[in-house]
Fold this protein.
Amino acid sequence: QLPKSKTEVINHMKHHKDGIHIVQEKKISVVADKAKRYIDQHFCENLKIGEMALRLNFSREVLTREFKSTYGLSPIDYRHRLRLFEAMIKVRNKKSFTEALFEVGFSDPSQFITQFKKNLGALPSQYKL
C-alpha cells in the first residue's frame, strides 16, 4: 500500500532493513541547516549543488561535507528522497507515477525507479494503490 502522508513514508523507511534514516546528528551545523531548509523549499527545481552553494555563500565542498556530517546523507540523496516522498503522495492522490515523478522534479522514469528501489527496496509497480 502507498503511504498516505510523508509521516507514513518516513515510518516505512525506518522499518525497511536497508532504509537510511534522515536524522540530525548531535552536531549542529549552520551550513547544513541552511542547505536543508533551502532544499526543503526548492527540491522540485533542477538546481545543481554548486549553484545552491553559491546562493548560500558556501563552497560546494563545505556544503556537502557539513550536510553529510549532520544528516548522514548527501544533499543530492536528501533531495531525491524528498522528491520520492512527494511523488508517492501525489500517486496516493490519484496521479499516475509518470505524472508524479515529472511534477516533483525527476528528469526521467529510470531515475525515479532507481531512487524508489534504493529507498524502498521495491519497484513502483509492486506498490498497490
